[in-house]
Amino acid sequence: MLAAKNRPAAAIPCSGVARGKHMASKAQSIKLNEHGYKVLTLGRYSFSRDEYFAHIRWPGGSHLMPVDRFLRALMRDVAWNFFYGIVNFDEVFGTVNHYGTVDVFAGLFNAGYRSQNKHFVENLDGELARATFSQMLEDWTIEGFDPFAAPEETGLPFGPKRGNNQRAVTRKRVVAQRMVGLKDDTPVRTDANGYTVNRQFADVAQDEPQVHAEPGFEDEVHAFNFFAYLSRSDVTWNPSVCAVVKDAMLCPTTEEFALPVIHGNDRVEWFVQLSDEIHWEIADRDTGVPRARAVMKPGDVCAMPADIRHQGFSPKRSMLLVWENGDAKLPELYATGQLKPHPIEF
Ligand code: PHB
Ligand code: FE
User: Fold this and answer.
1) Is the shortest distance between the CB of 240 and ligand 1 below 6 Å?
2) Cα distance between residue 143 and residue 164, in whole Å
3) Is the N or C terminus of the chain more exposed, i.e. has fewer CB atoms within 10 Å?
4) What pTM did the predictor assign?
């Protein structure tokens, strides 16, 4: 049976396969395959890659994904520490964040797998899972491939093991404590600190606002050119936390090509399209049955409901503001129906 709406993903009874409780604290032994790549295990999963594909195996099943798609999704799952709710790498494989532990699943949100009891899910220690995923990302990403870059701005990840791209895969996600550019906070981006204007944002004005603070308030009153800041982003589909007020986090991001994950929400997210255009495919979070398509143009605002999965497509590089609410109580409030999955009724 599929999960009732609003039930937390964690509470879905796993009728086909016993729910694993593997909380081992150590990664297991690592060997190299004939292509020169590490074969890794995590709980009862094993992961390997060849020249074109990532292979995932678990007791009772296996799956493969093109390795470019897999690495782009893995990069984000690692950098975002499993994000909010569900990160579907594709229609079969992914993770559910329980903020401390993580479910690593195959077929859990796939109606076909569920109807045949072929799904598999294992609840794992979040740090162990992240450490294993990081090792995989570092080893499987070869020289010249940057999983965070737009496809046009990077090389290909195919072929036998050849070098690495340590700088790219260990990038830290920008997380402002209060606001970009404030004293002791994450800096604004400039040519001098290595962030040049992206080829598609050459027309974005680079002037900075003047701030005239009263004496004594120099560290409190602040402004920066948000568009100029975004025009200098070197990554795609990677919301960075740029301004924070209590649980409200403004997370702008620049997008190009396809969001490499299909995100299943555990709370409402607000999107403000700042430039260009993104096409969103929106489906039921648990079954994947299509629900809507939204084409967002500059100035459009939308609230993505708490019970959907979504994937965005940006034909050219665009600027998107994602407004997240980090309140840890939200998933439970939505899961138990105390909050409606949509924030507004027309
Ligand atoms: C989302 O899943 O809401 C999301 C993720 C990454 C982005 C934009 C939106 O860059
Ligand atoms: Fe989302």
Assistant:
1) no
2) 4
3) C
4) 0.92
